[in-house]
Write a structure and sequence with these properties.
The complex is a heterodimer.
Chain A: H1 4-13, H2 15-46, E1 57-64, H3 71-83, E2 88-94, E3 105-109, E4 119-126, H4 130-134, E5 138-141, E6 150-152, E7 162-166, H5 167-173, E8 185-188, E9 195-201, E10 217-224, E11 229-234, H6 239-253, E12 257-263, H7 264-271, H8 273-307, H9 309-317, H10 322-359, H11 366-392, H12 397-401
Parallel strand pairs in A: 4-10, 6-10, 7-9
Antiparallel strand pairs in A: 1-11, 1-12, 2-11, 3-4, 3-8, 5-9, 7-10, 8-9
Helix pairs in contact in A: 2-8, 2-10, 2-11, 8-11, 10-11
Chain B: H1 2-15, H2 17-44, E1 56-61, E2 80-81, H3 82-89, E3 96-108, E4 117-124, H4 128-131, E5 136-139, E6 153-156, H5 158-165, E7 174-177, E8 180-188, E9 211-214, H6 218-221, H7 240-244, E10 249-256, H8 260-279, E11 289-292, H9 294-300, H10 306-336, H11 338-346, H12 351-387, H13 392-395, H14 400-426, H15 430-436
Parallel strand pairs in B: 4-9, 6-8
Antiparallel strand pairs in B: 1-10, 1-11, 2-10, 3-4, 3-7, 3-10, 5-8, 6-9, 7-8
Helix pairs in contact in B: 1-12, 2-10, 2-12, 2-14, 10-14, 11-15, 12-14
Classes of the chains: A alpha+beta, B alpha+beta.
């Protein structure tokens, strides 16, 4: 038999305290469920496949100290040297490095001489080794032949005539072609120079994974001496060794330059540092908040029990079992928690509406709210459990002692 | 009376150590969380140029795409084209004016063991140091001619001077920059505005430059900026000269205007300039330019981004939960002491006296919570410094203002939290408790 009526009337005498606990639970539910939905989105964002062998790649860049330095000659000699080193799987040169937060982008069109409505995408200028060096997967067509790779300078208007693109680029630029885009041409804005698609790679998130153009990329067979990075893929597990070795050998081959090197792993961590911090801070918030609320419930339950020691004694003296006493306090807690969760579900929706409107955060699905509500209910009952069990130990004698 | 209340409060807190500890912990955690995010946001939005906020202006010109405005809150490109920057430099209205951008190159010393390094640099006009109040350790800025023609002079930062010359006066010495000898004309003091309001491209909290180079070097070195370059139309670019004359934007522009007359005159100048350019077929959009004070510039550039502001709200909500928690616990505690309050009332204490006595008690809890909150804030900031690489060092730290704010927030929160419980207990009817004693 559940003693709902006496619980209700007892609660009514402590309505403010009970309401405060309910309010706390409600607010916690609102915060925790929204924090979870944000954390969820960030974690998903960070764990998206990047399309490249992110754990095995090291990049190098150098600045020549003498003024008139033959860059192209240095590129050729350096890359030949790097490719011959032990532990190196493949090496290429590119104007930009994926996931690094620094890159080039432009608008692309399916028709010549268009000015508006282009599709934004990243572009890379690179050589015939890029698919292998980045560890990408070619899904259609072919890569570049060595003789197709041209030298361009940023001040010239030389443009490549072929390109390899990502699947997403192909799908977004030619939505009607069902991925069948080999041989099709695209254009730069205000330009009638066609660039023919000769190959498609599965995926490449590009230099800015959080931007709207992420995943759309075009690769040109061209090398520029203004912006360049050597992208070196090491055999699995050899990355750090290769990084040291290549840095040494580059300096050894020609000491007249300053060499900078990074791993893609570093670049990726740097790029996602904000998202990562957000996830960690939010997990901290969720844990602390749950803890605080639990402590609050313990504190209040203990207080109520001490206050009602005499009543408990009387009830025990009149024949109530220990289980009945514990059950009473747990039921009381359950009723408060249920009220709180009802309030919280509404508050969570309101709070989420605000986050969506002001900060473009994802909307809160009901499943997350329900999951959080169940979790909080368990926390609340657990917090009440210890004091409730202790209450059962109150001896019937207390009832008579202080009278 | 106040002293007596304080001693009563301490006695009462010590009588229920667990409950008191819970209250202090709740307030400390709430204040700690709120202050950590508030401090971050406060440090991130600090205006390093506050002293000259009334006289400095970031200049924007709207020469963007006729079909759509530049994609940012100001709806104008953040930066200027090279040709516009050079044209604006001809005006003699501003006291100081700066056209600049980020660049870099290898720096080395002839016949020296010092390892060459890549110096993050700034190509700028000579007014940079006067306009941004950058103090000199040795020497000064370069000559006026160096802003127009390629003269190989540069200014080092204190840090790079230490690396190259061990910190001694290097004015007149020669360093190689990009393989060419440059004469050092000055060394600046340590100067690291954070956020670096003068150039908010490429990270708001990055290191500032290690070397400063004159504006007259572009053609000689074919300088491509290290910052952002943006364009809106397709242009035929076959040479570096084409690039300089293109509509691509890549320079930051600041002016110092001391009087309202100067501001007025400069506005007229900019209006006239855009009109003149329109006649030549440039500036296809409606006539628009921007003059933003440093404080406005920080807001416009959203230095404190959405995530930071969201965390701010979240931490305030967090504090609210902690407060509700504290109210509930205080209420429980005070009600338990109701018999005591009843006796005091019966002995002639007024309701006000009982009320203030309990308010003092909750303030004690607040003070302790505030102190705990500061410790937690310091711990939280240390944690964030660990999580975020590099730049957070300068941002995630607490100054005296924020320490005081933390105590203030804790006191205010606990006073607010104590208000209802104290009022409730002061309404106690003494007769009930006298009867049961």
């Amino acid at each position: 038999m559940l003693e709902l009526r006496p619980i209700l009337s007892a609660l009514w005498r402590h309505k403010v305290s009970a309401l405060l606990i309910a309010l706390q639970l409600g607010l916690t539910l609102a915060i925790v469920s929204n924090a979870l939905v944000v954390m969820n989105e960030r974690t998903e964002r960070m764990s998206r496949p990047t399309g490249i062998a992110e754990n095995d790649i090291v990049t190098f860049n150098f600045m020549a100290i003498p003024k008139d330095y033959d860059m192209y000659d240095a590129f050729r000699q350096d890359l030949d040297m790097i490719r011959s080193l032990p532990g190196v799987a493949s090496a290429t040169i590119s104007n930009h490095v994926p996931l690094s937060g620094s890159g080039s982008a432009s608008g692309f069109y399916t028709e010549p001489n268009k000015e508006t409505g282009g599709l934004g995408a990243n572009y890379y200028t690179t050589d015939e080794h890029f698919i292998d060096a980045l560890g990408m997967k070619l899904v259609a067509g072919r890569g570049f032949y060595p003789e197709e790779v041209m030298k361009i300078s940023p001040s010239s208007n030389d443009r490549p005539t072929i390109a390899v693109v990502t699947q997403k680029f192909a799908d977004d630029l030619f939505p009607e072609s069902n991925g069948n885009v080999l041989g099709k041409a695209f254009f730069n804005g205000g330009d009638d120079h066609p660039i023919k698609i000769i190959g498609i790679v599965e995926r490449n998130l590009g230099p800015w994974p959080n931007s709207s153009i992420a995943g759309r990329g075009a690769f040109y067979p061209a090398i520029t001496d203004r912006w360049f990075y050597y992208i070196v893929r090491a055999e699995p597990g050899q990355r750090d060794k290769v990084q040291k070795l290549v840095e040494e050998k580059l300096a050894e081959r020609d000491g007249n330059r300053v060499i900078n090197t990074h791993t893609i792993e570093e670049e990726k961590a740097q790029y996602y540092a904000g998202d990562n911090t957000m996830v960690k801070v939010l997990s901290g918030v969720v844990i602390l908040l749950t803890f605080i609320v639990a402590l609050g419930i313990v504190g209040l339950t203990v207080f109520w029990i001490t206050q009602r020691q005499k009543q408990i004694g009387v009830r025990r003296a009149l024949g109530a079992t220990r289980t009945a006493i514990s059950r009473y306090f747990l039921l009381e807690n359950l009723m408060i928690a249920a009220t709180g969760i009802a309030l919280g579900t509404a508050a969570a929706q309101i709070f989420n509406g605000f986050l969506v409107r002001e900060f473009e955060q994802p909307t809160l699905p009901l499943t997350i709210t329900v999951a959080c509500a169940v979790a909080l209910l368990v926390v609340s009952l657990t917090a009440a459990l210890v004091p409730a069990l202790r209450a059962a130990n109150i001896s019937p004698a207390t009832a008579t002692r202080s009278v | 009376m106040f002293g007596y209340y304080v001693s009563l409060a301490i006695r009462s807190l010590r009588r229920t150590p667990v409950l008191s500890g819970l209250m202090v912990a709740a307030i400390a955690v709430g204040v700690g969380a709120a202050m950590t995010t508030l401090t971050l946001n406060y440090m991130m939005s600090r205006n390093a140029l506050a002293a000259k906020d009334d006289v400095l202006y970031a200049v924007q010109l709207d020469g963007w795409d006729p079909h759509e405005a530049a994609d940012n809150p100001s709806e104008m490109p953040w930066q200027l084209t090279y040709q516009d920057a050079v044209n604006l430099l001809r005006s003699d209205i501003p006291i100081n004016q700066v056209a600049m951008h980020r660049w870099g190159g290898p720096i080395s010393l002839e016949d020296s063991d010092i390892r060459p390094f890549t110096a993050d640099s700034r190509v700028t006009t000579r007014d940079f140091f006067a306009l941004f109040d950058v103090p000199f350790l040795y020497g000064g800025t370069w000559s006026k001619e160096a802003d127009q023609s390629p003269i190989h002079q540069l200014v080092l930062s204190k840090e790079s001077n230490e690396k190259l010359f061990g910190g001694e006066n290097s004015v007149g010495r020669t360093v190689n920059f990009n393989g060419v000898p440059f004469t050092v004309v000055g060394v600046t003091e340590h100067w690291q505005p954070s956020p670096k309001v003068h150039d908010l491209n490429n990270g708001h909290f990055n290191e500032s430059a290690e070397a400063f180079l004159p504006f007259g070097l572009h053609r000689a070195f074919e300088i491509y900026p290290w910052g952002n370059t943006n364009g809106w139309k397709s242009e035929q670019i076959n040479s570096y000269e084409d690039r300089l004359n293109s509509d691509m934007v890549w320079l930051q522009y600041w002016v110092q205007l001391d009087t309202p007359q100067q501001i007025e005159a400069y506005r007229d100048f900019l209006t006239g300039y855009i009109r003149e350019q329109k006649e030549q077929g440039r500036f296809p959009r409606p006539l628009k330019f921007g003059l933003s004070k440093p404080s406005e510039w920080l807001l416009l550039n959203e230095v404190v981004d959405g995530d930071d502001r969201m965390l701010n709200w979240l931490s305030l909500a967090f504090l609210l939960v902690c407060l509700v928690n504290a109210v509930a616990l205080l209420l429980a505690k005070f009600l338990r002491k109701a018999p005591e309050a009843g006796v005091r009332r019966a002995l002639g204490a007024s309701r006000n006296a009982v009320f203030s006595q309990h308010l003092v008690e909750s303030s004690c809890v607040g003070l302790l919570g505030g102190l705990g909150g500061i410790l937690l804030t310091l711990a939280g900031l240390a944690l964030i410094r660990q999580l975020q690489m590099g730049y957070m060092d300068r941002v995630a730290s607490m100054d005296w203002t924020m320490m005081l704010a933390a105590i203030g927030l804790a006191m205010l929160s606990s006073l607010l939290a104590g208000l209802y419980p104290a009022w409730r207990i002061s309404r106690t009817n003494p007769s009930i408790y006298l009867k049961t004693q």
